[in-house]
Design a protein that fits this description.
The protein has about 220 residues and is mainly alpha-helical. The chain has ten helices and two strands.
């Protein structure tokens, strides 16, 4: 008959129709955002807040230094040591001397009396507590657990806080050293040695040091 479609003769099955409606309903629920218990939070079909989907998963305990374990389980950083370190913080200002800081830091560490096996672990554990300001920001700029060897930490620290320009200036101060007008010989010698300590890589042997010091003295006839 005109207008007839063979599909129209298919018998109606209520079970198939019900199944299709349920599938469409589940699909719609999976893509629909509905308000949660809080007026400011929204949930997907899994009742998980949207803010959790935007959360970036990363290390739960971020530390720029990979700290090795102590060989002796009884070794620990005592509050007294941390208090001493806190009183000698390195900030990273232009006038701060990184070599003097490292020397003091190592002297404070020696008060623990730990074995040689644990020295590096102590340095790496205590180092972050000794920094503040720019120096702390510099340490935090390193990737997670990227600093694992104390010698490398020292080298990176010196490169950052004693750049070539400061090194050249310090070396020039040594080569042009001279005694003050009202300065005793003892005071002059102490000041000269202090300049050498602030620039350990000066590459002046003992003879050169003696020549520079002697040439800078105000010798009276």
């Amino acid at each position: 008959m005109r207008g007839k479609n063979p599909a129209d003769t298919t018998p109606f099955d209520p079970k198939i129709t019900k199944t299709e409606r349920e599938n469409r309903k589940k699909k719609k629920q999976a893509t629909t955002i509905t308000p949660g218990k809080s007026s400011s939070s929204y949930y997907l079909s899994t009742d998980k807040p949207l803010v959790d989907y935007a959360y970036q998963h990363g290390p739960k305990h971020y530390n720029n230094i990979g700290i090795p374990p102590f060989s002796n389980k009884f070794v620990e950083l005592k509050p007294a040591l941390l208090s001493l370190i806190d009183s000698h913080l390195f900030v990273g200002m232009d006038h701060d001397d990184p070599y003097t800081y490292l020397s003091t830091f190592m002297e404070l560490r020696s008060t623990m009396g730990a074995s040689n096996k644990d020295v590096e672990a102590i340095y790496l554990r205590a180092f972050p507590f000794s920094l503040a300001g720019k120096a702390k920001t510099w340490l935090q700029s390193h990737p997670n657990k990227s600093l694992n060897i104390w010698e490398e930490v020292e080298e990176k620290f010196i490169v950052r806080f004693l750049p070539l320009s400061r090194f050249i200036s310090a070396k020039s101060t040594i080569t042009t050293f001279s005694q003050g007008s009202d300065e005793s010989l003892c005071e002059t010698w102490e000041r000269f040695k202090a300049l050498l300590r602030r620039c350990p890589n000066y590459n002046f042997d003992d003879g050169a040091q003696l020549h520079i010091f002697y040439s800078g003295l105000n010798l009276k006839p």
